[in-house]
Amino acid sequence: MAEQKKSLLNVHSYTKECIERYDGASPQRTKISEAPPLIRMKLSDAIFDLCRANSLWPLTFGLSCCAIEMMCCGMARFDLARYGAEVFRPSPRQSDLMIVAGTVNRKMAPALVTLYEQMPAPRYVIAMGNCAVAGGPFDVEANYDVVLGVDKLIPVDVYIPGCPPRPEALIEGILQLQEKITGKRFPFPQNKMPEGA
Amino acid sequence: METFYSILPELIRIVVCAVCGAVIVFGNALVMGYAERKLAGHIMLRPGPMEVGPHGIYQLVIDGLKLMGKQLVVPAKADPLLFRFAPLLAFAPVFVPLLVLPFSEKIQGFDLDIGLLVILALASINLLAILIGGWASNNKYSLFGVFRAVSQNVAYEIPMLLSLLAVVFMTNSFSLKAVVAAQSPVWFIVIQPLAFLIYLVSIVAETNRAPFDLPEAESELTAGFHTEYSGMSFSLFVLAEYANMFIVSSVATVFFLGGSSGIPLPYFEYSGIIWFMLKVYSLMFFLVWIRWTYPRTRFDQLMNFCWKYLIPFALVNLLITVVMVKLL
Amino acid sequence: MSMDVKALEDDRHHRYVLNMGPQHPSTHGVLRVLLELEGEYAMNLLPVLGYGHRCHEKIAEFKPAKSFMPNTARMDYLGALIYNHGFAQLLEKAAGIEVPERVEYIRVITSELNRIQSHLLWYGAYLLDLGAFTPIMYSFDDREHILDILEDVTGSRLTYCYFRVGGVSKDIDEKFVTGTRAFIKRLRSRFPMYEDLVNGNIILQKRLIDVGELTPHICARYGITGPLLRGTGVAYDMRRAEPYSIYSKFDFEIPTGTKGDCMASFMVRFHEMEQSLRIIEQALDGLPEGPIMAAKVPKKLKIPAGDYNSSVEAPRGELSYYLVSDGSDVPYRLKVRTPSYSNLSVIPEMCQGMLLSDVVSAMGALDLVIPEIDR
Amino acid sequence: MDINQVKKQWQELSTAVEDVEYAVSGHDYNVCLECDKVRDFATLMLDEGFYLVDLMAVHVTPAIEVVYQFAHFETRCRVLARAFVDDKVEMPTISDIYQGANWHERETRDFHGVVFIGHPYLKPLILPEEDVDLKPLLKAEAKLKDVDAVRRKPPEPAPAPKAKPAPKPEVKPAAVKSQEQS
């Protein structure tokens, strides 16, 4: 069993390829990040970042339990629309944010990576739930199929623990992602909570 | 040189019209996009966009800028030329119909004798763009969307034309200004209620909106014909959709709701435009309202509805109109 | 998947294969269906499962049976308490533990709340499949009230692990009772609105009537249970057929349809919510005082050797746990018979020759929960 | 459905038919079959109006045991039929009788490697394509138990005769307490 577990990711040839591609040490990747951008304009960058942060269109991509909480999040009580993130696009080409809501197993892994690659840049990933973060309750001896953490396959921006996380946690995750993109927590402080609330 | 001076006012007029058209197209998309999301929110017991600006009014600007900043992906197996060309083809022709629309008695680009024909001819180009885009994507879902879009739009163009033709028979003119002028005592919605209903149903199908949004039926075809489009090319399709909504609603206003006629406001010569816009946006509100209320129809039901009910009724309506016009 | 798409397409030129899923809005998760289409008619369907497989049955063989309870909730996250119920009952049956009466009442009340919650979610999601965007908001609004009630007592919103072997983990209080009563009143007042807004809609009826018809014989061959079976006119409900817990004490009807089409199962599910409310009301009226845990539940629960079966009525049909024990506290083999698995297996036959849109509505009528199928 | 008549037919097909107490085990009858009689048994069950609840395999020595569970829509009658696979880990399919068994058999092939003869499409269903030989639910050597060890020990000294091995006399009776309202 232990041996199987070790070779868990190697069984799927495509998965292996993915790991190599997103390995931080791969020479190709460093080359891209070192190349200077053609136009370096701080203001336009800032404006575009602001726009990106406030218009995160998620991909309709529910895997398991957490998908229900993701749905709840878009529904009447929690309403992701307030942050402009309610436009769940079914096509990866039109979405900016992939919320990996649930367990990824070896059969799903290649599909997940394909979807990620089909998203146009700039793209963001939120790993929602313990399974997507690190395997969660399936990180046990008996496990032979679950990929222990989606960051083994694609780069992840924000991790949201919980089994499943509450919708508030997902909203917080999206706010964190906004902060990560713009460097500010509330770029548009319209309905900011008063101090001490 | 003399000829240049003689056409100069005309040139300036064209430039001004084009600029105004662009303003209307983009402004309309912003307003409608925001209104649609906000209205959808309120229909669904939630606030809708809230954080970006007061009550989220900058949301659409933000979305537009973001879409501009997105990577444009051309799928590896797509036809690159047609794939890039399709969104432009969808977007470019929406300006022309705006030139002939009589926003008020004095605000009109060109009063053509064949105004209606220009609008209908150019509105159909959008369909061609959808066809090209869906075909070039080399995606089965897109292809499906295209099948549906083409058969649906071609079918629904017939009742739409027939219902407008009834009005044309009454006014004896294709000129939009003449149609508006002919409605001075009573609007044609009173005289031609059936034609108006048929037209209203047809425009829902023509603009591919729910409950007839089969070309982009989300639960069946993921995103329909624009499945493979990203970033700005996707938003051009959306802009074209909203502009088309505006155009068909304007035609409805001109032909059935008395165009710019209304209670003249004091001290304002161009008050007609306010009435015109009010009528157009009420129609668009109606379109948004039914979109968020009804389930989607099935494709064969949609086509049966057109060929078995709408077209016969439209023909009968036209026949009665012709007979009445001859007799009276 | 090795179904050779190219060969299939070449073989029958006019047909082609459309791949739905694993990421598709109408497959409710990670189901993948290959459709062989002729025009828009689906001539052949091949569902591909396993995108949500999480080795639950293997995990069960590696840990004490008592600590498998959280996994049951993750199999069917919409009917988590009912899955808890079945598993708790299985172990109690196997170890011979008597459950106090109050516990049974609490279990019935919370299970039925969970059933309503699941049906409400299905109601919204199904209509979303059919292209109506708004009803899901209304049904989720009602659903949130149930989640609030259950969260107070169980501590979680979705994947409950509330039942224990021999009892429940926390007693219900006055707040729970009043909250539940208020919710019953609220939901009853909302039913007429749902009927006006949705059920009578002509587009909806045209989309559902005569689509995906089933017969009792097909159900027997495929092992279909739950609302789909009841839609064909067979009043088979585990709560009546093999009355577990204290369901025999309550007065409730089993809604049935006649035609077995999507509309029949739609209405059966809709009326089941009303019946569940009736059960909850009766249970709240008769709620006895008493302990919430059986007197003697050993820390290490040894299950006598043999095989045990426990069947309950999950929101989607009959759920059976089959446990083979070798006398230790770890199950030798645990097999979970999940209703959606059998229900889904009918779609190649049910959807043959259907339009693509009808395939979507027929698949929605099955009320699929994919991790429950893949386990 | 006349249960006595059906039972008689079962006895003709099977090696043993036991009555089991529903309150203890959750099913009413146990039927032990030879693997070549499975198809006849399934045909009989379908004719009598039973539906297939479940099909699964249990890995024991001497051979993998395939368990079929049937129940009836009208009366409470849960039947458990067991059969051991033959030397080549093979079993006749019942997927042409009960179409619902199709997926169950593919799943059993995935998890235990039981090959169902005559199955139309015995490809991996749940596991990925590459894992045809993974067979995750097969027990490790150390954990594998004999079939006696997982059989119910008779509570009274008047046991129903077992099909393959005789029950062991020295075991203590299982706790039998009915907590099921009937």
Can you give me a brief rundown of this structure?
The complex is a heterotetramer of chains A (197), B (328), C (375) and D (182). Chain A is mainly alpha-helical and 197 residues long. Helices cover 39% and strands 7% of the residues of chain A.
Structure description:
The complex is a heterotetramer of chains A (197), B (328), C (375) and D (182). With 197 residues, chain A is mainly alpha-helical. Chain A is 39% helix and 7% strand. Chain A has one domain: Rossmann fold, CATH 3.40.50.12280. Chain A has a three-stranded parallel β-sheet. Chain B has one domain (73-327). Chain B contains 14 helices and no strands. Chain B has helices at residues 2-43, 59-68, 80-91, 95-100, 115-123, 125-137, 140-171, 176-182, 188-191, 193-206, 218-221, 231-256, 272-291, 299-327. In chain B, α6 packs antiparallel against α7 (140-171). Chain C contains 16 helices and nine strands. In chain C, the strands form three sheets. In chain C, strands 1-2-3-9 form a four-stranded antiparallel β-sheet. Chains C and D meet through α4, α9, β6, β7 and β8 of C and α2, β3, β4 and α4 of D.
The helix tally of chain B amounts to 14
Report the sheet with the most strands of chain D, covering strand number, pairing sense and barrel closure: 5 strands, mixed
Indicate the percent of residues in helices of chain B: 55-70%
Provide the CATH architecture of chain D. Answer: 2-Layer Sandwich
From the alpha carbons, calculate the radius of gyration of chain B and give it in angstroms.
Answer: 21 Å
**CATH H-level superfamily title of chain D:** NADH:ubiquinone oxidoreductase Nqo5 subunit
Number of domains of chain D: 1
Q: What's the layout of helices and strands?
A:
The complex is a heterotetramer of chains A (197), B (328), C (375) and D (182).
Chain A lengths: L1 H5 L6 H10 L4 H8 L7 H12 L11 H10 L22 E5 L7 H10 L5 E5 L1 H5 L23 E3 L6 H16 L15
Parallel strand pairs in A: 1-2, 2-3
Helix pairs in contact in A: 4-8, 5-8
Chain C lengths: L4 H7 L4 E5 L11 E7 L2 E8 L7 H5 L8 H7 L4 H16 L5 H29 L5 H20 L8 E2 L2 E2 L5 H26 L2 H7 L7 H7 L4 H5 L6 H4 L20 H24 L20 E9 L2 E9 L7 E5 L1 H6 L2 H4 L3 E2 H10 L4 H5 L1
Antiparallel strand pairs in C: 1-2, 2-3, 3-9, 4-5, 6-7, 7-8
Helix pairs in contact in C: 3-4, 4-5, 5-6, 5-12, 5-15, 6-7, 7-12
Chain D lengths: L2 H11 L2 E4 L2 H4 L3 E5 L4 H10 L2 E9 L6 E8 L6 E6 L5 E3 L8 H12 L2 E3 L65
Parallel strand pairs in D: 2-5, 6-7
Antiparallel strand pairs in D: 1-2, 3-4, 4-5
Feature tags:
heterotetramer, A: 197 residues, mainly alpha, Rossmann fold, three-stranded parallel beta sheet, 8 helices, 3 strands, globular, disordered N terminus, C: 375 residues, alpha+beta, Cytochrome-c3 Hydrogenase, chain B, 49% helix
